[in-house]
Amino acid sequence: MKLSIRPFSVVLAVCLVVPFLFGQALDPAQEAQRANELVANGNLDEAIRIYDRLVRAFPSNPGLLLNLSIAEFKAKRYHDAIDHARSALKLKPNLASADLFLGASYLELHQQAKALDPLHKALQAMPNDPNAHLMLAEALLACRSYEEALNEFRKSSDLLPDNPKVWYGLGQVYDALTERAARDLETNFPDSVYSSVLAGDSYVRQRRFGSAFAAYREALARGPAIPGIHAGLARVYKQTGHSEWAAQEETLEANVAPVQPTTSGPAAYYWSSKSYRQLADRAYDRLAQLPPSLESHLHAAKALD
To answer: Residue 2: pLDDT above 50?
Structure first.
């Protein structure tokens, strides 16, 4: 699965602190205050110039380095933001906001593996920071650490329930887990009735109804009917204009004996894949309930593709 991390804006006004330059003239503090105001007003280039002068004048001040890194991040100068965040951390290793912006900058450069360590450190110091959870979730997803990503996305869904990135990311994680369970089933039990049913379900989502029909019929030939076969055939018949045949398959589906979930064998992979697919659909349904966003359009394009 091709995964991508999209641009993510981090706004933490609390990080834009005015350094207390004890023993100095008021001019440096006034300049720092002016730079803060410029950042807040979006005049990033001028703010960066001021912070750069202050950093050269006071190279041992981690707060100034952090503020410069934040301004550079907002200006999309991610390489510079990384350099100055790392410099701030050398002076003050427990500066959580520097770890946050270091991880955020790596994420924007699609260097997700490098983002993991600073984002983990930021969360150790700021366990309830919603942006840190979401960014870590996206980095873990890109690194294919699906279970860890799922945990972070779930936390993000509580902290940022109206953020489309959260629900799109959750859908992507569940998609990946669905596909992994299906691959494991096909690898370990290629001749299983469960493998044929999942293949049929996949073909239906791709609107390849002839292939789906063949897969479901193959499943029936391999053994007793399990839940999902006749329902799949009913969907195929409905989509191809055979409503009477669809009704017959729905009746047959209603009479299929339920299969108890299990933790081993082909049925375990089958039910895992089906469960993850349902959870993915729920995440995308939640995304669809939010105002239109880049993520909702990405999901619509993916579905059409």
So the answer is: no
Please choose, from the candidates 118, 95, 96, the residue with its C-alpha nearest in 3D space to the C-alpha of residue 106. Answer: 118
Q: What token pair was written down for 102?
A: 């270091």
Write down the pLDDT at residue 27. Answer: 80
For residue 128, give the 3-state DSSP assignment.
coil
**What is the spatial distance between Cα 137 and Cα 153, in angstroms, rounded to a whole number?**
6
Residue 37 CB partners (closer than 8 Å, separation 6+): none
Quote the crossing angle between the two packed helices 193-205 and 265-289, to the nearest 10°. Answer: 20
Helix (H) or strand (E) holding 80: helix 78-91
CA–CA gap between residue 108 and residue 131 (Å, rounded): 14
Residue 192 burial by Cβ neighbours in a 10 Å radius (0-12, 13-18, 19+): buried
Q: pLDDT tens for residues 42-83?
A: 999 999 999 999 999 999 999 999 999 999 999 999 999 999
Residue type, 207: R
| Rounded (10°) angle between helices 130-142 and 112-125 | 150
HSE (side-chain half, CA atoms, 13 Å) at 113: 2
- Please give the biggest Cα pair distance in the chain: 88
Nearest to 142 by CA among 185, 176, 186: 176
pLDDT band at 18 (very low <50, low <70, confident <90, very high): very low
Q: Is the pTM of this model over 0.70?
A: yes
Residue 36: closest CA among 18, 21, 59: 18
Render pLDDT for 200-227 as a digit per residue (tens, 0 to 9). Answer: 998 998 899 999 999 999 999 987 888 8
Give the integer Cα–Cα distance in Å for 198 and 242. 22
pLDDT tens column, 245-297? 999 999 999 998 887 777 788 989 998 999 999 999 999 999 999 999 999 99
- The DSSP letter of residue 17 is P
Q: How far apart are the first and last CA of the chain?
A: 14
> How crowded is residue 87: how many other Cβ atoms within 10 Å of its Cβ?
17
